[in-house]
Amino acid sequence: xxxxxxxxxxxxxxxxxxxxxxxxxxxxxxxxxxxxxxxxxxxxxxxxxxxxxxxxxxxxxxxxxxxxxxxxxxxxxxxxxxxxxxxxxxxxxxxxxxxxxxxxxxxxxxxxxxxxxxxxxxxxxxxxxxxxxxxxxxxxxxxxxxxxxxxxxxxxxxxxxxxxxxxxxxxxxxxxxxxxxxxxxxxxxxxxxxxxxxxxxxxxxxxxxxxxxxxxxxxxxxxxxxxxxxxxxxxxxxxxxxxxxxxxxxxxxxxxxxxxxxxxxxxxxxxxxxxxxxxxxxxxxxxxxxxxxxxxxxxxxxxxxxxxxxxxxxxxxxxxxxxxxxxxxxxxxxxxxxxxxxxxxxxxxxxxxxxxxxxxxxxxxxxxxxxxxxxxxxxxxxxxxxxxxxxxxxxxxxxxxxxxxxxxxxxxxxxxxxxxxxxxxxxxxxxxxxxxxxxxxxxxxxxxxxxxxxxxxxxxxxxxxxxxxxxxxxxxxxxxxxxxxxxxxxxxxxxxxxxxxxxxxxxxxxxxxxxxxxxxxxxxxxxxxxxxxxxxxxxxxxxxxxxxxxxxxxxxxxxxxxxxxxxxxxxxxxxxxxxxxxxxxxxxxxxxxxxxxxxxxxxxxxxxxxxxxx
Amino acid sequence: xxxxxxxxxxxxxxxxxxxxxxxxxxxxxxxxxxxxxxxxxxxxxxxxxxxxxxxxxxxxxxxxxxxxxxxxxxxxxxxxxxxxxxxxxxxxxxxxxxxxxxxxxxxxxxxxxxxxxxxxxxxxxxxxxxxxxxxxxxxxxxxxxxxxxxxxxxxxxxxxxxxxxxxxxxxxxxxxxxxxxxxxxxxxxxxxxxxxxxxxxxxxxxxxxxxxxxxxxxxxxxxxxxxxxxxxxxxxxxxxxxxxxxxxxx
Lengths: 614, 250
Prior knowledge:
The structure holds 2 protein chains of 2 kinds.
Chain A: H1 2-32, H2 39-56, H3 64-89, H4 99-121, E1 137-140, E2 143-146, H5 147-169, H6 171-181, H7 183-188, H8 193-214, H9 225-240, H10 245-265, H11 270-284, H12 312-327, H13 334-357, H14 368-385, H15 389-411, H16 416-436, H17 438-441, E3 447-448, H18 459-482, H19 484-494, H20 496-501, H21 506-532, E4 534-535, H22 542-555, H23 562-580, H24 584-598, H25 602-613
Antiparallel strand pairs in A: 1-2, 3-4
Helix pairs in contact in A: 1-5, 1-6, 1-8, 1-9, 1-10, 2-3, 2-4, 2-8, 2-9, 3-8, 4-24, 5-6, 9-10, 9-11, 9-16, 10-11, 13-18, 13-21, 13-22, 13-23, 14-15, 14-16, 14-21, 15-16, 15-21, 18-19, 18-21, 19-21, 22-23, 22-25
Chain B: E1 6-15, E2 18-28, E3 33-37, H1 44-51, E4 59-64, E5 67-68, H2 74-79, E6 82-85, H3 97-108, H4 124-133, H5 149-161, E7 167-171, H6 179-196, E8 199-203, H7 207-213, E9 216-221, E10 224-229, H8 231-236, H9 238-245
Parallel strand pairs in B: 3-8, 3-9, 6-7, 7-8
Antiparallel strand pairs in B: 1-2, 1-4, 4-5, 9-10
Helix pairs in contact in B: 3-4, 3-5, 5-6, 6-7
C-alpha cells in the first residue's frame, strides 16, 4: 500500500513535465499546423543548457537559490530563442510545402541537434545539481517523499492555469486562439502572422526547454532524452486530442500514472501499456479524449500526374542494367558484392515505403518497424527453433505483414499528422521491445549467428539470392500498383469523398496497402539479417526509418522508379560518408534540409521535369 | 403509380441545438427530376447528406427501393444504386478521364482488391461507352486535372452513372459553371434520366435551371418543407414568393 502511494505521487511528478512538452507541441501545431518532430530535441537542449547554466551561467556565481532557479529559467528562455531561430530560418520557408516535407524538415533538425549536442557536451550522461530549498523529503501519510517531486506535481496544474490565463486574458493569447481556428481570417484582419508564428514557436520551445531543465535534479541528462520524450508526447497528444491543452493535461496524468504503476507490474515494457491505452482511446474516441475532428487540415498528398507507363528506352536501359548485374558480379570483390546486396535490400525497403507514401498518400515515420520485424522474425526463428534460412525467408514477410496489420489498423484510421505521429510511436514501441526484452530478443546485444544456409554463404551466391528476392519483391509491388488495387489506393488519396461515393472502403484499402508494404519491408529486413549474420535493435531504430524516408523523397514520391534511384544514390552516399566522417547525422540532417528546400520533387522528379521541358 | 425509388420520412438533424432539417419527408420516382430548393441555410445540403449516408439523421427513415438504408455509409448506399455528384467536383486528379470511370466500374464489379491483372486491361469498352454517354469520349486519355470545369462536371456525371444507378443525387450540379453550359448539362442529365428510368434529386440555386428542368419542386425554408408541386404551382405559391423576395431571410 505504501509503495502504491509513492508510485502514484511519482506518476504525478512525471506527468507535469510530460504535460509541459505536450502543451508546447500542441500550441505550435495549433497555429502553424506543423507537427514539430524536433520538439523532443528542444526538451533535450533545455536539459543540457540547464546543466551548463546552473553551473556556469551568469547567475551561477550567486550560487544556491538564484544559481539553480536562474539557470533553469535561463535555459527555458534560451531554448525558446533556439526555437524561434528554427522557425525564422527554416520553417517559415516551408509553411506552404506539403505536410510530409514539413515533417521531414523538423526531422532533419532532430538529427542535427543530436550530433551538435554530442559535439558540445560529449557522450557521457551528466548529473545535474539538486534543487535548493527542495532537497530532502517530506512526510506524507507517514512516508518520506522527495520535496522536489512534490514541487513538480504542482508545476503541471500551475502551468495549465497560467497557459489558460495567457490564452484567454491576453491579446496575444486571443490572437493565437483565433489563428488556431482560422489562419487566413486572422491574416485578413491585418495581424502580422510572421511575428505571431515566431512567438508561438518560441513559447512552445520554451515550455519544452523548461520541462527539460526541470528534469535536472531527477535524472541524468543524456542523449536519448529527445526520442524518449517525443514518443511519449505524441502518445499524449494523440490520447488527449491534438490542439487541446486540457486534453494534454489529462492524458499526461494518465500516461504518468501508467508508467509509475506499469513499472511495478510490467517492468520491461511499460511502453506497451501506453500503447494499449492509446489503442483503447482511439477505438472509443478517434480524435482523442478532448480533441475534435480536425477541420481545414491540408490534404496529406500532393496533386500528382497520372502514373506513366514504362517508356521503351527505360525498359531497354533496365534490361541492360539487369544483364550487367547478372554478368559482372563474378569479377567483383567480396566487399563490393556485399555493398551491392545491401543496395538491393534498400531498394526493396524504399519501394515498400513508397507504396504507402506515394500512391497511398500516408506518411510513415516508422517504417523500420516492419524491416526489423522481418529481421527479428527470421533471427528469433533461427535462435529459438534452429530454423534454416529458407524457412526464415518465407516466415519473415508474414511476421512483418502481421505486425503491419496490427499497427496499421490504427495508423490508417487517422489522417495526416495524427497518422504520422502514430507510425513513429509504434516504431519506437517495437524498438523498445527489442531493446528491453533481453531474455527473448537479446536486448542491446542482439541475436548473433543468423547465417545463411551453407549453399548461400559465398558472397557471390548471396548477391544473386538478394537480387532475385528483392527484384521479385519490387516487381510484385509494381504489379500491385498498376492493378485495380493500386488504382483504388490512388483513388482514396486523390479524393476520399469521391472514393467512398463509388463504393471504395478507403480505410480497408489503406490497411491492406500498409500490410503489403510491411511484408515487403520484412523481406528486405530478413535478407539484411542473413547478410550481416546478426540482428540488433538498431534495425528497428528511428535512423533506419529516416533512411527509408530519405530514399523515397530523394528519388521522388511521385515517380514509380523514384525509390530505386533514391535507394542506390543514398546507400552509396552513406557508404562514402561513414568512411570519412563520424558526424553522419549532422551531414544527413543538412542534406535532408537541402533536399526539402531545393529539390522537393526528388531526383527522378527533377529528371522528369527536365525531360518534359526538353 | 409505381413505388418510389427513394422515400424519406420525417428526417431531422440539428447542429448545436438549432434544427437544420426538421421533419422533412419526400419521395422520388423513376425517371423523375425532383428539385430541392430554398434560400441559403435552409438545410438543403444537410438534407442531401442524410439521404446518401454522409450524415446520420437524428430521427426519420430513408427508404431506398423498399429497403431501410438510414445511416448507412455512402459506399453501401452506392452499392444499392445511388450515384452522387458534389457541389465542388470530386474526381481523381492523378488519373486520366477514362481511368476515373474505370475506377467506378472496377468497384462495381468488386475488383478493388485484385492485385495482379493490370487495371488498364479491364472494362475499357464499358468506360468508353460511359464517357460517350456524356460526350467526353474524345478526352478519354487526357489527365483529369487539365479538364475545363464544365467537362469535369460531365465526367462526374459519367462516374455517377457508371454502375447504372436507380437514383442520382446531385448537389448544385451547375454551381461554378458558365450560364451557357448549365442548361446543356441539365438537359443531358434529364435525357439520360428519362431514357434509363433514373430518379434524379438535385439542389440548385439557379432558378432558370430549376424551372427549366425539374418535373417537380420542393421548397425548404429553415429546415421545413413549405411548398411542393409542379413548377407552375410553386411559382404561384405565395409563401415561396415571401421566402425568396423578402421576409424569409433576416
